[in-house]
Amino acid sequence: MLLTGTVVADSETVIADGAVVVSGSRIEAVGERSTVAPQYADHEHQSYDVLLPGLVGGHIHSVQSLGRGIADDTELLDWLFDYILPMEASLSAEEMAIAAKLGYLEMIESGTTTCVDHLSVAHADEAFEAAGEIGIRGVLGKVLMDQRSPDDLLEDTQAALDESERLIQQYHGSFDDRIRYAVTPRFAVSCSEECLRGARELADAYDGVRIHTHASENRSEIETVEADTGMRNIHWLDEVGLTGEDVVLAHCVWTDESEREVLAETGTHVTHCPSSNMKLASGVAPVWDYLDRGINVALGNDGPPCNNTLDAFTEMRQASLLGKVDRLDPTATPASDIFEMATINGARAAGFDELGAIREGWRADIVGLSTDLTRATPLHDVLSHLVFAAHGDDVRFTMVDGTVLQEGGEVTAIDAEAVRREASEVGLGMDLEDARRSARQHKP
């Protein structure tokens, strides 16, 4: 396939009248349209105003999509134990499949082609199958919770680890290696030391399996961990093996100097979730400090109940503006840094090489946007537009691994209307009262 338009190959390379050639699952050629296009005149040709690498959601909760809008204006632990855990506990396998499809559909529609996805305790198979069916690239994991958890989500430690291993054996590297596994403890508050150490042992047993958890999102969380262990959260995670180049820690809002040194020294990845952190009033992650230390920082939306959208373009804007106001410095978190967080940094966190930029020989995950919009006029700087003005609904074309999932603004990978209809029926029909009563008994 021959794609033409303004090619934003990476944060430093923009080809105003460019072309990209895709052969199989890889990018065969990138360059000036006048040079590239004549050599591939026999290829199917599509043109979009802007072509860019597929965006990476470095921390996503696809299966929370049915809870969009049910827990607004709520503090984190109330949000979690009064709304989110009860919702997850109430979902049947069929409903979990619908929730996952809705999340993946939203991402494909809005230009996210890879996600690091924190699922739930039960019915993880449904999400893996949904991701495989729709065609998104992802690092998925079943959630581990063996303490301080509602009865319907609480698991025996070894049984939870055994189920994770079954899922690894079934799905890690599946669907032509688009789908990989991350061992996924929810967070230290709901996981025992045995569970956390077991997560590390399990990840070490399989090549390419990652670890994905929440860390230091909220002051109540770190106070609870310190009361349990006598250690700051990042130090505790380091003690039990949950730091390193194969670990993705979501949030990392409340870290001190010594914890940041650990993150940098171990090569641990951090995912910044600015909208979620603002909406839950968790605080402002010190992203500028992490980047200065050489810590790889990805960008994530978190879940729809604490963000209300999985639109990665909105998240780029939020991340840049929040970084500037936090430092009272308009030069902080420039568009180029933010774009890298949403693309190549996210690919590194997810563990996929040759992903996150449009380069010859790299994986063909490509997004096409329209700029035939009032808010794109005049278009002085395309990178500025992508970070500060573009929306997910500007996306007209989505390709993952060389396969077209959205074309001309229409999703071809799944019946989008049917997914929305089923999700609306299930979401509006949820009754959470019984699960909520159980969850409240375990709130820290």
UniProtKB/TrEMBL annotation:
Residues 50-404 form the Amidohydrolase-related domain. The keyword Hydrolase applies. InterPro entries: Amidohydro-rel (IPR006680), Metal-dep_hydrolase_composite (IPR011059), Metal_Hydrolase (IPR032466), MTA/SAH_deaminase (IPR050287). The keyword DNA-binding does not apply. GO terms for molecular function: deaminase activity; hydrolase activity, acting on carbon-nitrogen (but not peptide) bonds, in cyclic amidines; metal ion binding. It holds the Pfam family Amidohydro_1. It comes from the Archaea. Keywords: Hydrolase, Metal-binding, Zinc. NCBIfam families: PRK07228.1. This is 5'-deoxyadenosine deaminase. It comes from Haloplanus rubicundus. The lineage of its organism: Archaea, Methanobacteriati, Methanobacteriota, Stenosarchaea group, Halobacteria.
